[in-house]
Specification:
The chain is of the alpha/beta class. It has helices spanning 5-9, 12-19, 66-73, 108-116, 125-138, 154-167, 184-199, 215-221, 255-270; strands at 26-37, 40-51, 55-59, 84-87, 93-96, 172-176, 207-211, 224-228, 235-240. Strands 5-6-7-3-8-9 form a six-stranded mixed sheet, with helices on both faces. A three-stranded antiparallel sheet has the order 2-1-4. It binds adenosine-5'-triphosphate. Adenosine-5'-triphosphate (ATP) binds at residues 37, 42, 60, 62-68, 231. Residues 28-255 form the ABC transporter domain.
């Protein structure tokens, strides 16, 4: 069936694809990945498939190895012998960290342009500027192009960091507690802004993997939740979230939401 533009705008198409993700192509796969820092084992035989078009959250006890898992996916770390990390061919990957890590002496747009003009996949200055302007529009900060980080709120700075990652047109976005440093109000606002960006036909983004400490955030945002065990971490459970595909404010009232939150709480107690 042909997808209409309005369906896409409503975010239905991407989300529906996610709900049948088991039939979709794999975006990132980890097979039998163990990893140690010196003689400290951090990951223990982690196998995980992340599908195109899905939103996956990673939960687990502090220090269990969630960031390490993202760094494996990003190819910044290699697993021990016998482990394998594969990114589907031609898929580009972006990363957003807990803190926005902006250069204080550069304006909002200069912070986004800079990484586009260095490294392997380099754009011309004009292309980089156009992409950065587009990304600022996506996150609603087009009127703050020439502001410096100290002139922006914490939430706005994190939006710049998201825009910086999106400007490079990633298909897969890895996020390490992206909203952990924000107040509850800003955090909830950005949760839904991120979902709308993920659904939007104006971005190349199809897959998000997000580390979070918040059970509630993971349930409201994800299609599946990966619960990690304590270090050396393995996959304790993978929990599908039975909420309607298009997430909206107020779904926290639904029984499916409470059921999933309670199930995760019980699991956390037994870890
Ligand atoms: N570069 C490194 N060298 C040595 N040890 C490291 C390094 N990076 C992480 N570790 C250790 O690996 C373990 C897992 O760290 P990681 O940051 O992946 O955990 P996490 O689950 O993301 O933690 P948190 O939830 O607290 O952010 C920790 O014990 C940490 O001290």
């Amino acid at each position: 069936m042909q997808t209409t533009v309005s369906e896409l705008r409503n975010g239905v198409a991407k989300q529906e694809q996610a709900s049948v993700s088991s039939m979709n192509e794999i975006a990132v796969t980890l097979k039998n990945c163990s990893l140690s820092f010196g003689d400290v084992p951090v990951l223990n035989n982690v196998s995980l498939d992340i599908y195109n078009n899905e939103f996956v959250s990673i939960l687990g006890p502090s220090g269990c190895g969630k960031s390490t898992l993202l760094r494996l996916m990003l190819n910044l770390l290699r697993p021990n012998a016998g482990g394998e990390v594969k990114l589907a061919k031609d898929l580009s990957i972006g990363m957003v960290f807990q803190k926005p890590v902006l250069m204080p002496w550069l304006t909002a747009i200069q912070n986004i342009v800079l990484p586009l003009t260095i490294g392997e996949k380099r754009f011309s200055k004009k292309e980089a500027r156009d992409k950065a302007e587009g990304a600022l529009r996506l996150v609603g900060l087009q009127d703050f192009t020439n502001h410096f980080p100290h002139q922006l709120s914490g939430g706005m700075q994190q939006r710049i960091a998201i825009a910086r990652a999106l400007a490079a047109d990633p298909a897969v976005l890895l996020m390490d507690e992206p909203f952990g440093a924000l107040d509850e109000f800003t955090r909830e606002k950005l949760n839904f802004e991120l979902l709308r960006l993920w659904e939007s036909p104006d971005t190349s983004l199809s897959t998000v993997v997000m580390v979070t400490h918040s059970i509630q955030e993971s349930v409201i945002m994800s299609n599946r939740i990966v619960m990690m065990s304590p270090r050396p971490a393995g996959v304790d459970a993978i929990i599908p979230v039975p909420l309607p595909a298009h997430r909206e404010v107020g779904m926290e009232e639904l029984p499916e939401y409470h059921h999933t939150v309670n199930e995760l709480r019980k699991r956390v107690k037994h870890l």
